[in-house]
Amino acid sequence: MFPELNSILNSTPDSFKSSDFILVSDRRADASFLIHHYLSFYLRAGCKVCFLGLVQSFSHYSAVGQRLGVSLAQAREKGQLVFLEGLKNSIGVLLQEDTSQETQPLSYLRHVLSPGAGLEGLFRFVERSVRQSGDGDAGESWGPPVLLIDDLSVLLSLGVSVGAILDFTLYCQATVCSELQGNMVILVRCEEDAADDDEEGSNLLQTGLVHQCNLALHVEGLPTGYCRDIHGQMEVWWRQRGETIYNQQKIFHFKVHDKGASFFARGTSSAVL
User: Fold this and answer.
1) How far is residue 93's CA from residue 105's CA, in Å, rounded to a whole number?
2) Are the C-beta atoms of residues 107 and 121 closer than 8 Å to each other?
3) pTM here?
4) Which of 214, 216, 103, 119 is nearest to 172 (CA)?
5) pLDDT tens profile 177-218
6) Maximal CA-CA distance, the chain
7) How far is residue 232's CA from residue 31's CA, in Å, rounded to a whole number?
8) 177 near 156, Cβ under 8 Å?
């Protein structure tokens, strides 16, 4: 968890907005540190977290979580964290001979060659996870549900259309944010060079998600190139609920450390003029 980022976003584990859809995106940079931040943030806040880890193993997130002061294994044992390990589960689905089990969260992998392949099974998994009882094994009561996804754009490489993915996020937003008053954090990766006729790329997906979310964090490499002391810049867009346009925009430079990250308002760091 990064205190400086909390200050920028005016949010702490003890006081944060509900019903937020936070979009994290990157181009020529790695925004994964923001996913680790939000995972530790919401676990510390006592929320019930459903995490779709589509690109990394549980042990990877667990190792980073330990450096940030949270135990993912303990959270999962207590029932606070529901983790879907996409890499492991997808192999099981693809190798399984029994094709009748369509209720699996990654059952869409059986139909990746079909233009109409959808994500109903994955949504049902999310819905079951966030609706589960909020009582932990020790009688603890979890806070509002949170859905984290790292990284949603990987579904494009598996044959799922942009339209199907946007439908999935709309259903998740209606359930998690609107109905259950919880939050969503989704990471997508943007292509470095977007083709004008690209109708199914990650840039189109990011554009669609920008219209759905109310807070967007976009991480990019520095326009001036590599810098040892600054790893990139983060653009932040805020939009009030009910508004159709973003009300505020700010740009920060950042540097990622082993156990955190530092943020500087653009122009205030001597490393980048």
Assistant:
1) 9
2) yes
3) 0.85
4) 119
5) 999 999 999 999 998 765 544 456 888 999 999 999 999 999
6) 61
7) 10
8) no
